[in-house]
Automatic annotation (TrEMBL):
Signal peptide region: 1-15
Keyword entries, A-Z: Signal
Protein name from the UniProt record: Ommochrome-binding protein-like
Top-rank taxon: Eukaryota
InterPro entries the UniProt entry points to: WD40/YVTN_repeat-like_dom_sf
Taxonomic source organism: Danaus plexippus plexippus
Length: 276
């Protein structure tokens, strides 16, 4: 069912394909090298990077029919790829950057992975189907299928009061404590501690597939047709690059863009002094 919903959002007009022969792509008037990190993955999703180890975590689909997901990782320094041991059906990931722990939302609660131990263990919320998870000081999560939004703090589940009447699909908090979230209507920004959501853009169809922040806490997101950033002064969005069939988005620990499409994960590295 989750995959079905993801697929629905991917019925998209195929824009111009990125020519693989060209070895760069132009973003913000700078040439960026196209560094393919891994191919032959089925819709890698929920990309997150642990900045201390520069390891990328993500989930991907194991087959086209059922909701069976695997959580994998790629060491961005060595390009080593493997699956995480100890967790099944992880669909959404987030990182506690201070403690270097990865929280993985599955169809049966939250698992926690410690890089040093190289194993995931059950953490909390057995029986809960997690749709989206986000960590900043505490764990925020929405559940499937109703997308109601909660916090998990010291063993207590509490509906998150700022967003208690809202469904939440994707969620991040930026460097100025502004929360960005999406639902079936579109993308919203809302200062933490208030309940006044500002509509940044309506997306009745083909909405936001992933919301993230870069290493400076600035908000970026992807839709099927490329990568965007937000303009808080104007409460609007700006596209920074056209890409084809983007699924998810993250930044590595030196602020390179990492994105996935339906079959691969790519890093975009700016080439110094190469204007375009
Ligand atoms: C999305 O969130 C906004 C702001 O809270 C709300 O007004 C809107 O009704 C929500 N849309 C859906 C479909 O839940």
């Amino acid at each position: 069912m989750k995959l079905f919903i993801l697929l629905l959002t991917s019925i998209a007009i195929r824009g111009e394909e990125i020519k693989v022969e060209t070895d760069f792509i132009c973003i913000g008037n700078v040439e960026h090298e196209i560094d393919v990190l891994k191919t032959d993955l089925d819709r890698p999703y929920s990309l997150v990077v642990d900045y201390s180890t520069n390891v990328l975590y993500f989930s991907y689909s194991l087959n086209n029919i059922d909701d069976v997901f695997k959580t994998g990782f790629i060491n961005l320094n060595t390009k080593e790829f493997d699956d995480l041991e100890g967790v099944e059906n992880g669909f959404t990931q987030t990182i506690d950057q201070n403690k270097h722990q990865v929280y993985i939302g599955t169809n049966d609660g939250i698992y926690r992975y410690e890089h040093a131990k190289k194993a995931a263990e059950f953490y909390a919320l057995s029986g809960t189907d997690i749709w989206h998870i986000y960590y900043k000081d505490v764990i925020y999560y929405s559940i499937f299928p109703n997308q109601f939004f909660y916090t998990y703090i010291n063993g207590d589940v509490v509906k998150f009061k700022d967003l208690q009447d809202t469904k939440v699909d994707q969620f991040v908090i930026d460097n100025e404590d502004v929360m960005f979230f999406t639902n079936a209507t579109g993308l919203y920004g809302q200062r933490k501690g208030t309940d006044a959501a500002k509509l940044y853009n309506e997306y009745a169809t083909d909405g936001v597939r992933a919301l993230t922040t870069d290493i400076n806490g600035n908000v970026f997101f992807c839709r099927f047709d490329g990568i965007y950033t937000v303009d808080k002064a104007m409460a609007s969005v700006n596209k920074i690059v056209d890409l084809s069939d983007v699924y998810s988005l993250a930044f590595d620990n030196v602020n390179n863009i990492i994105y996935s499409d339906e079959s691969k994960i790519v890093r975009l590295k700016p080439k110094k002094d190469k204007a375009c």
